[in-house]
Each structure stands twice: as structure tokens, then as C-alpha cells.
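agent> Task received from the user: take the single chain below, predict its 3D structure, and emit C-alpha cells. No templates, no multimer pairing.
agent> Plan: (1) validate residues, (2) run structure prediction, (3) serialize to C-alpha cells, (4) report one or two observations.
agent> Step 1 OK, no nonstandard residues flagged.
tool_call: predict_structure(input=
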Amino acid sequence: MKIVKHSGAIVNFNRSKLKQSLLKSGAPIEVVEDVLQQIEKEVYEGISTKHIYKMAFALLKKTSNSNAARYNLREAIRLLGPAGFFFEKFIARLFAAEHYETKVNTILWGNCVSHEIDILFKNNDVITMVECKFHAGRDATTDVKVPMYILSRFNDLKDKKHEIFSKNDIISKCWIVTNNRFTADAVDFAKCSNLNLMCWDYPKGNNLKNRIDNHKMYPITCMTTLTLSEKEKLLILDIILVLEIVNNRDDLEKIGLSQGRIRNVLREASELCRVMKI
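)
tool_result: status=success, residues=278
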């Protein structure tokens, strides 16, 4: 059975790959098998992966909002756009969850020109700059030109003292983070230049998805019990994470939710952030 990917590429339907993505949602194996069986009855030659995803999401949502929310994670990160400002805040919170001291959108003077840095974090007196590359399109990739450009900015900043967390801080490391993927050339160039990369599935075992799951740092945009408009209102209130509304009714009341809706939202938030084994 041939299916069509977002990029237009035609590939074979892979039951095993779909099963793994469903299991990563936290759904029990019996639910996953039932979803797979229902999808297999509906797939046809030339069906799009987008259509398959929508079917899987709808079927998961019938059994558990939180499982559907986890399954929707990559799309939820895309909804932190379109400009990427909220994505930068989200990544800063992710580093903060790992006990790093962070700052966002800081302007620093280099040896040649000034630079606006998306994120700076401090860990054991080591200062790292982080540049975020957000893509609104699902199939867009970050190519080698991006790490080449960011390396030049890093070189302009790294040997100079800055007032960041203290008066004489020196930036000694650089990360580049994207919500999609890096090309092979971008990865090779970064390795050669001692730049750290993080994207949806790189590096293996410590990528963006792994870190989100490990720390339960799910973006508010993955919630299934909130409308798109309600999510946007929470983002404007600087509510970026699901964790930030667990046991907190105030911000949900601010955006006009009824008491019944608030109970449903808090139930999903609590289930989503619960410790889970996959």
C-alpha cells in the first residue's frame, strides 16, 4: 500500500512505524492495536500521511484526551508560531527545567556589531548562547547556511566580556535549536565547528521530543480541551506550558472559561503531566 507524505514523496504504508508513534502517546497496547485495526480498514492507495494522522488523533481522543495531546506534540510545537517568539520562550523554559539560569531576547555587543540573542543560559559558570530557528511548515529543514551564519555571530561574541548574569560573563558555547530537522550538511558542519544542535529527533536519545517527555514540558498548544483562540490568549498571558495551568484556575478564568470547562481542562493537564512509562 502506497501513501503520500507531506513532502509529496510516495512511500509504503509502515504499520510498525505508526504503531511506535501511537505507543509514544502513552496509550495502552490494546488501545493502540484497536486504533491500528480501524485505520487499516480505512487506508487506501495514495492516502496522505496527514489523513492517517488525523484519523489516529481522532481515535486516540475518543479514549484519552491526554494521549491524543501527546500524539499531537509536533503539531503543537508548530502552533507556537508563526513568528517563533513563543517557541523561543518554550525552549528557554525547557533549559530552565534542567536547572539552567536563562535569559531571553538579549542584545549584546560583539567585537564588530550588536546581536540580539534568542536565549542565554548559565550552567556551572558556563555561559551558552542559543539561537532558535522556527519553521511554520512541517517539511522545512534547517540547512548548512544557518550554522555557518550563527557561527560567525558566536565568533563575534565569544572572546568579549558581557554583562549577562554578572558583569564579566564570557560566552563559551553555542546551541542551535529548531522545531523541525537539520540537513546532513548542517549536522556535519556543526560537529566540525563544535556547535551543539537540537531538533525534533536529533541528537538521538536527547532530542527535543525526548527532553519534552522527560520533563513533562508540554506546550499549552497540545491541549485538546482548549480552542485555538483560547490557546492564543494563554500564550499572550505568558502561559507557555501545560504545567503552568495544573492546579491553577486563575488564568483559565481570565480567558473566560466556565467552571465545567475549567474542570475538563485541568483534568487533561493533570493526566498529560503525570509521570508515564513508555
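agent> Step 4: summary for the user.
The first helix runs from residue 15 to 23.
agent> Done.
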